[in-house]
Fold these 2 entries.
Entry 1:
Amino acid sequence: MNVMKNTPGKAPVCEFLDTVNLDWANDFEQAAEESRAILQQICGTPGWLDDLFTHAEQDAELREKAEGHQLLDYIVLYDKLDRGVRLRLHLSTEDHLQRPHDHRFDFSTRVLCGSYEHCLIIPRLDPYKISPEPQAIHYQDRFNPDPNLNLLNEDLQESFVRQVKSGSTLSLSNNVIHTVKTAADTVSLVLRGPARKNRSFIFDRGSEAAWWRFGAADETSARRSDKVMSDAKFQQSKEHFQRLNIIK
Amino acid sequence: MDTNKHIATHWDCFLADLNAIDWESPLSSFHGSNSEILRKLAGDKPLMKRLILGALEDPYLWSKCEEDINEDKIVLWDDVEKGMRIRLRMSTQPQQRLAHSHRFTFTNLVMRGSYTHWHYDRLPSFDEKTRLDDVKTSAQHVDREGDTFSIHHEALHSTPFPENGTVSLVLRGNPIKERAPVMFKEARGRTDALADLRNNEIEPEHAQKGDFFWRVGEDRESTSRRAERQMTQEKLDFWVKELEKFGLL
């Protein structure tokens, strides 16, 4: 049983998360089920999301992890990857592109508002075998696609599709390639585990270009500075979450 | 046997006017329109009831209405030329988790109930030689009333209905393979009972985790097997009353 200690000044949601330990690597099914229940509890307990956002805004280590990307921006609300928990609040941008990709980590997600079309993909070719890691590190964004990956759209076949709406949850392992086509103003709460591999794959259906995403330690400084969320952007995101009634 | 009798009989319903579905195109290209078809049909309760009762009157459709180990199926429509078969699927017992693919691609609407939907890693091959531990869960989500999904015939998944009376409406294409693989991820019946696998193209009543069988089409089944699975009129009448009780007709 998880026992929460009452630490003066510490928000109850953080005390709750301090008791969580998820073993994604050895028991994906258990971690997936438990993480979805945690997301439900966070979203269902009044004040918990507000407290998490306030904490993220004030904690320097969490604040510097906030990132802006072409298709989504996110704030890191809680971070204890040694216990299998990093919590992120995602907001879709105005760009809505079809980009099949996988992740370096396993995770669960819950939609708070908005919706998206979610597709699982069967790859006909293995991009990880075609482009080994040492050379892939040079191709980290859409302006520097990997020339070794001459993939076509039909090489990434849709195997499953559904519409994910507010209240829906999903758990995904790190080796699944998927696409997420978001409607405007889609917000998700994501609970991820530690990285299970060094890089992840991403493909743009429009240009049929592919590239790789690495963890912070292996990213180029140009890539890092491109992603890090500025104070102005953070404030914009906060106001957006407030307009959508995600936080007060 | 006249395969179009029901289409002629129900010429005035919207299903008769639909265009053929290109099941070979990307799922996202037809998922939306297929979902609309299923929602429109499910929302038209008098039409649903007419088609369910009509299945009894059409020997071709009736021959495809089945009572299986833990679910029953009623076929409402089967336009082979357009690649459009529509059937109701109703659970009659809590179901075990079976990892499987299908002989066809299809779109599904949950009309009643909810369940965890499991997805598994793609395998180089999935057959009697596949070990239980090789079938690894890659994704999970929950399908709830009103949700739809579309799935390719090569995808491996499980949708175990946990409760009696879980109802789905399925729009499927023509089969493109003779048989589809199924593995028990959960045991069925007494775990110490021997699996009845004398014929691995018949779903066993008892099974251990890892036991495997093939789902086949009606054309591969014996006459006696078809007779075993044939729905009775009593059962159809039961389902009409039950679906009315659920508020679905």
Note: The helical segments of chain A are 12-17, 28-44, 48-58, 60-63, 127-130, 133-136, 221-227, 231-243.
Entry 2:
Amino acid sequence: MSEAELKKGSAETLILALLSEQALHGYGIAKRIEEKSGGVLQFHVTSLYPILYRLEREGLLKSDWQQPEGGRRRKYYELTSDGEALLLERRADWRSFADAVESVIEPA
Amino acid sequence: MTPQGIRTQPPAAARALLWLLVPALYRDQFLGDLQEEYAERAMARRLPATLWYWREVLRSRPLALRRQLATAPSPGSPKPNGRKATFMDTLLSDLKQGVRTLFKNPGFAAVAVLTLAIGIGANTATFSLINGVLLRDFPAADPHELLAVFMSDSSSGPYGGASWLDYTAIRDRSSTLEDVAAFSDFAPVMLNAGDETQRVNGALVSGNYFSVLGQEPHVGTFFDSRDDEVSGADPVTVLSYEFWQSAFGGDTDVVGSEVLVNGHRLTVVAIAPAGFRGTHLQNSPALWVPMSMLEQTMPFRAGRDLLTRRGSRWLRMVGRMGDDVTFEQAQAELSAIATQLGEEFPEVNMGTLQAPDQARPITAMRARHAFVGARGRQDAEMVARLLFGVVGFVLLIVCANVANLLLSRASDRSQEIAMRRAMGASRARLVRQLLTESLVIAFAGGIAGFLLAAWLRNAMLAFDFAAVGIDVTRNELVLDRNVLAFSVAVSLATGILFGIAPAFRASRHDLVASLKGSESGIGASLPRFGLRSFLVVAQVALSLILLVGAGLSIRSLQHALDVDPGFDTQNVLLTNVDLSLQRYEPPRGQVFYRELLGGVRGLPGVVSASLASVVPVNPSGSRTTVSVEGYQPREGEDMELNVNWVADGFFETMRIGIVRGRTFEPRDASGELIVIVNETFVERFWPDQDPIGRGVQFPGRETPARVVGVVRDGKYRSIREAPMPYMYLPLGPTYEPRMTLLVRTDGDPLAQVPAVRSQIGRLDPDLAMFGTHTLEQRIGEVLLGERTAAIMLAALGAVAMLLASVGIYGVVSQSVQGRTREIGIRMAIGADHGKVLGMVVRQGLGMTAVGIALGAAGAIALTRAAESLLFSVSATDPMTFGVVAVLLGGVAMLACFIPARRATKVDPVVALRYE
């Protein structure tokens, strides 16, 4: 798979995982991904919006507008219980997938 | 959140752009997100933060769009979160849809774009012509400040020339005009640079001419002197760009070098800019010479007298208004000066035929009106209006055609459209989308049309526009910003024009019926064609108008060609000599003429030869005021009549018939004053009397000239003129330095050119002959305007007719398709082929007949407006109308024929089963 495809597939999981730790707005999610991955994974925030929108539509996230003082209102996302459940599944899937790949490509 | 959050706002412009570009869905979030990051960065340093913000804005669009189109539902349907897509979203997707539609239907697209290209291209080409002639500003610095200033003489109207003394009076007395320059008409000079001598046109100008016009030279420095009255003070000259290119190959070393002008040394100080003609109406002079060099360079212009004689009106004037001076103020002051001059110098500045007690007026005109067009702005405007009318018609026809095409496709798309409406697209939304599609087609046509106009431009450059009253040089006929803007505007207007009706029509479909896929029954088919039929009727009407125009101008041309000019136009060679340039005194000149005629007449292949100061048909000629023995002129009657100085043998060479008396003979060159007149002269002044022996008093003569002969009338200044009195004087007693040699030959006149040239060279090797052509060519040139109009109208008329017939075919064809059931029923109950044919053809002819009737009415109204252009053809000439109507009717019948035949092939059984 190309890097783009890998990214596309994993973006959802990354979002779900991050949001399980704390509620974030779109830009915050992008920044966290870059920070936590040490700069290896970079998502432009605009490519995240549609995914967030879809996840919310599917009921995995919920959003809330907050009006901080002196600034624009911000839309914060957090996981729903369905989202939490999906995250657990995804984590398990990823673990088994990664282990399988590793056992194949690692020299014996 | 930073404590300074409020004050650290990202740049407003970038925010606004973001608002436009980003889908509403994410707008607020994105703005908020970016703002926070911006605030953080701006805390450190402002500028990089701003730059970063802009970069984010610009990056956001492509990403967002790609994502959005892939995942979001289609625009136009209500959004789950209640927000609509942005205007940009819908516009972009409409455009993509439009382009996609074009590619899906290449046949339709090709036809539409091609016909649009013709319509838009013709209009663009016409506009570039008009732009070059009428809209372009007069080429000078601040041209709106420039005025042409005219004086008047007794009878030639208010737009005449000025004498040098008039000019200096105006220049010195005017305070509204900060400076005034004077310039002469063309004066031919012999120019010698290196070893070649050429005869070129020069212009004498006052020393301040170029500073008044205010343009920069291409190379060098324009002369600017105030010593106009000091003879020989400024031995300098300025060359025109075109002449510099052709004679010196654009060599800049010419500037600073000397050239010989009529034997006198002048230093070239500058080259004028490309395309600069100064204030001359037609082509630019090859060189400009300051007035102080008058005597040296223009020897036979009566030398110094030209600067001192109040009555020699040989100059024209251009003035520059001061700052904050209005046109009205300048004109008022000039009128005041006119009154002063009238009182101070009544013999030359007081009284005209119309107003003998008033000072002769001084008239100002804006430079862009005065210095445009070979025959003035009115002519150019009239031609422009006509041209635009014609190509405008063609464009309308094209629009009707494309609209028809779209309408026919609309019914094909009815299912698709119905589905979209069912999904919730609003009517306005659909109309906008369909209109956008039309605009895509229109702009594609506009691009093709622009290219066509560019191609046409090259064709136009080969055409001599000056002959039809439009004066435009190569540099002015450009496709510049104006033309491009015009092209875009026309495309836009066209797209809306032909797209709006089909858009409304298509979006109005009956949902249920369309979704079921049935073309509804007989009753519903008729009103649906109302709009299309109307369009076809309009096309037919417009085509008729164009064709009638073509027909009338063809007949006009025929009549003009049939006019008897009064002489035999075949096999006559014309060439000109100018003895003034070689400083011939009259006696030497007379000898020259005699010997030249003797030599030329002796050549093999020459039937006869003569000389004339004016050769018909010529818009310019000589006039002089005479008094006629025994005739008392009426009040205000203009006794300034046309006169031509001719050598012996003139009437024989031109084959002008003699009515009474005799023609000139060689002995008339010296002897008492005689004159030959034409028939109209006799009719007007001595009706029913014997003219032979009667006297005509010419100015400056002691005794009157005696009439020795009467010749047939002819055309002298224009093919269309009414008969006018004309006088011929023999060459002897009066000497004219510039004559045209006429040679009647056995065969092709041009074959005699080398022989004639050697005859001239034998007598004077330094004398150049110029302007060589045949009499036939000259007459042909005179009719160039008529010929052009006829060709153009005929071509456009044919195109219009073709488009109209395609339109008829389309409508009738679709009608047949829609009425298949009806036809099947009719055939089932016994109608034979003939009846079916008749039914279909009747529909087509019905539209055509209405179109012809409307078109005829329109044509009558329009051609009456242009009646002055027609030559002995009535604007409502019945034969032309009749022929065109029959032609259109015949073509329409043919267009109906194919679908009609298809109608007869309908199998009733199949038709009745068809749902």
Note: The longest strand of chain A covers residues 61-66.
